[in-house]
Write a structure and sequence with these properties.
The complex is a heterodimer of chains A (72) and B (640).
Chain A: H1 2-38, H2 43-51, H3 54-71
Helix pairs in contact in A: 1-2, 1-3
Chain B: E1 5-13, H1 17-27, E2 31-33, E3 47-48, H2 54-70, H3 78-89, H4 93-138, E4 151-159, H5 165-177, E5 181-187, E6 192-200, H6 204-213, E7 217-219, H7 230-281, E8 287-288, E9 292-300, H8 304-315, E10 320-324, H9 328-331, H10 348-351, H11 365-380, H12 383-400, H13 405-428, H14 435-438, E11 446-447, E12 450-451, H15 458-486, H16 490-513, H17 522-557, H18 560-581, H19 585-619
Antiparallel strand pairs in B: 1-9, 1-10, 2-9, 3-8, 4-6, 4-7, 5-6, 8-9, 11-12
Helix pairs in contact in B: 1-8, 2-4, 2-7, 3-7, 4-7, 5-6, 11-13, 11-18, 11-19, 12-13, 15-16, 15-17, 15-18, 16-17, 17-19, 18-19
Classes of the chains: A mainly alpha (72), B alpha+beta (640).
Chain lengths: 72, 640
């Protein structure tokens, strides 16, 4: 019974992290494009800001990896 | 590396002020400071230098630049240019402006006339093309139009999305002309519809007024085209176009003749006026007494002797340079000057994304030059991809490198990154994914019995990535501690030491809890934690305490080194798998090549951004403060 929940848990950990990252990146991306339209020099910084929320999906990935490879 | 700077004071007789400014401008070593900010209120001895007759120079420069850009470019003999420059350089402002005025008076009228004529003719050509396009579309409708004496033809243009306005116009014309009109339309292109209407001239004013009120674009044909059949109009348009084109050719020839005669002189005059304008723009930063001038600025230590010697040689001791001993606080306000080796220079582009480092702060660029390619290589890790990235970067740098400094630097970074990519590709045994292994060309390396096949070492690779994170974050904190010690900032020292102790103890406790290290180490770690936490609290307050958690998250964030790498490997494997599963070899090759191409493009972007992010967010946040100002020497092309 437990083993069936392991891949689901891993999937949830990764998927929800990715969802959160997606929502955050959508907003930051839109704001970043707006900022670049006003000041083109901000392109580099905007790119870094867009990459910021990827920590969420990375954390989700780490948890998923722990669930799959350590707990399983 | 950030260079040490010395504050200097230059003093000399007022007669030598212009020559001194000119010499410093050409030397390009001094970052000028505003002396006037140091003049005490009521000081009768030292005053600010007035701007002088700058307006004349600026006015002449504007006119000369305007004419220079109107003339076609003509190759200039560089030797002659340098000679003419030297001849003009030593003239004073009045002589220079006089020279410019003479050139302007000889050239201005002719140049402007020719330029205006050319611009009018180009406008005519654009209009003719427009008429031709509309009339060609309407020509098939001509047969349906009534040819009645006393009727007027008008063409209007409407954007496709507002096409319904035609119905409004039709209804209005019915009312205005009492149904004595005809209206037909045809699409000119994807966005525009042209409509031709014929109506009784009696209603001309009312119809035009109505069309104008609807904000519709009416094509006003020139009088010579009115009341003529469309085919005759098209012939006339063609004749006029040929005439205008020939005339533009004549104007161009005249401009080229003029350019051949004047371009080199104008180019040099423009250079000299620009330089003089730059020089005059800084005069207000200087101070003066009745007989002397005073300037202040910062010079990198390694260029101090050169600056002193140049002034000594030029003025035979009349202009002197004093090193000023400044307080530690004032020294901290010195401009920051990187002087990195050639291989590190491209990474200054990334550091430039942050605000300038403060003087005495550690320049993070050399560290980035080590870790950025390492992270990039670890993520991409493929010999084939490394070769492709190297070839791409070399080609793009060759084509666009001279045009854009940013592209040149980015390509240099990619070139540097391609080598660790190939090195890690060799370790992982990857050549376009598993193609190298399938062909028997390469195998993953084995270290301590562990075969470095990325698909097989998921957990060890994840642990290795996080270990890199621990090292990088601790390195950042150590640099932060060094910065704090250099600046003698006690609270910051406490915060950084506390953070190092706390993070070390948390990591040891976690490792002991999962039995990776002996449980015996748990107790000393708790003691370290109890020492570290109060230090963090004392140094940075609650924000620093919260920062402990964010530092732990930062460490885990390095897992992306493995995650992004995995994504790249899997896509490469999919490319090979799909390619090999195709029945026809050529199709299989094309499918695999296309997918690898997509992966290579992704590999150039994603690992670069992730690596940059690991530096700017995870690493720099541990030590980098910024908020300084960059060394901006007074020299050609930098004065705003």
């Amino acid at each position: 019974m437990v083993s069936e929940w392991i891949p689901i848990g891993a999937g949830l950990a990764f998927g929800l992290g990715a969802l959160g990252t997606g929502i955050a990146q959508a907003r930051i991306g839109a704001a970043g494009v707006g900022a670049i339209a006003e000041k083109q020099e901000l392109f580099g910084l905007a790119l870094v800001f867009v990459a910021l929320p990827e920590t969420l999906v990375i954390l989700g990935f780490v948890i998923a990896a722990i669930i799959l490879f350590v707990l399983a | 590396m950030l260079q040490k700077m010395t504050k200097i004071q230059v003093i000399g007789p007022k007669d030598d002020l212009h020559s001194t400014v000119d010499l410093l401008y050409n030397l390009g070593t001094v970052h000028l400071e505003d002396v006037s900010t140091t003049i005490a209120p009521g000081d009768t001895m030292l005053r600010r230098v007035k701007a002088g007759p700058k307006a004349d120079v600026t006015g002449a420069l504007v006119k000369v630049s305007g004419m220079f850009h109107l003339l076609p470019t003509t190759p200039i003999n560089e030797e002659l240019r340098a000679q003419t420059y030297e001849g003009l350089r030593w003239k004073n402002d009045e002589e220079l402006v006089k020279e410019a005025t003479q050139v302007i008076s000889e050239l201005e009228t002719t140049t402007k006339e020719l330029a205006t004529r050319k611009s009018d003719l180009e406008f005519t050509l654009t209009n003719l093309a427009h008429y031709e396009q509309v009339i060609e579309k309407l020509q098939p409708l001509e047969a349906q139009l009534p040819t009645l004496e006393g009727f007027e033809v008008t063409v209007i243009l409407i954007q496709q999305e507002f096409k319904e306005v035609l119905d409004i116009i039709r209804a209005a014309l019915t009312e205005i002309t009492h149904n004595q009109f005809e209206l037909m339309s045809a699409d000119v292109d994807a966005t525009t519809t042209a409509a031709v209407t014929v109506f009784n001239k009696t209603y001309s004013d009312q119809v035009h007024s109505f069309i104008w009120s609807q904000n519709v674009n009416e094509v006003r044909l020139p009088p010579e085209y009115l009341d003529k059949p469309f085919d005759e109009v098209l012939t006339l348009v063609e004749d006029n176009r040929k005439r205008a084109t020939a005339e533009i050719g004549t104007v161009n020839d005249e401009l080229t003749d003029l350019s051949g005669q004047w371009y080199p002189r104008l180019a040099v005059l423009k250079d000299v006026l620009e330089d003089r304008n730059d020089e005059l723009s800084v005069f207000t930063k200087f101070g003066q007494t009745d007989y002397t001038f005073v300037m202040m600025g910062w010079v990198p230590n390694k260029q101090l002797a050169k600056t002193k010697n140049a002034l000594k040689a030029a003025f035979e001791g009349r202009v002197i340079v004093n090193d000023i001993k400044v307080s530690r606080n004032e020294q901290n306000k010195a401009p920051s000057f990187y002087d990195n080796p050639r291989i590190v220079k491209p990474f200054e582009f990334f550091t430039g994304l942050m605000s300038a480092p403060q003087y005495r702060e550690i320049d993070p660029t050399p560290l980035m030059a080590v870790f950025f390619p390492f992270f990039f290589g670890l993520m991409v890790g493929d010999i084939g991809y490394g070769l492709c990235i190297l070839a791409f970067a070399l080609v793009v740098r060759k084509i666009y490198g001279l045009r854009s400094h940013a592209i040149k630097q980015l390509m240099n970074i990619l070139i540097i990154c391609s080598f660790p990519t190939m090195f890690f590709g060799y370790l992982f045994g990857e050549f376009f994914g598993n193609l190298g292994q399938m062909m028997g060309w390469i195998e993953p390396a084995t270290i301590n019995g562990l075969t470095l096949d990325r698909m097989e070492i998921i957990v060890p690779f994840l642990i290795f990535s996080i270990a890199i994170g621990v090292f990088h974050v601790f390195l950042g904190l150590s640099l932060g501690l060094t910065n704090a010690v250099t600046r003698r900032h006690k609270k910051l020292i406490c915060e950084k030491v506390g953070m190092l102790l706390t993070l070390t103890s948390i990591i040891v406790i976690l490792l002991a809890a999962v039995a990776v290290i002996p449980a015996l180490l748990m107790l000393p770690s708790v003691v370290l934690l109890l020492i570290g936490l109060p230090l963090v609290w004392y140094g940075g307050g609650i924000v620093a305490a919260i920062d402990i958690m964010s530092s732990l998250t930062n460490i885990i964030s390095y897992a992306r080194l493995m995650a992004i790498g995995m994504a790249s490997v899997v896509l490469a494997l999919v490319a090979n798998k799909l390619g090999s599963s195709m029945g026809i070899v050529l199709v299989g090759f094309l499918v695999a090549a296309l997918l690898h191409l997509v992966n290579i493009v992704l590999c150039m972007f994603s690992p670069s951004i992730q690596s940059l992010r690991l530096h700017l967010v995870e690493f720099y946040s541990k030590f980098y403060e910024g908020g300084g100002r960059m060394y901006d020497p007074f020299k050609r092309g930098t004065t705003k």
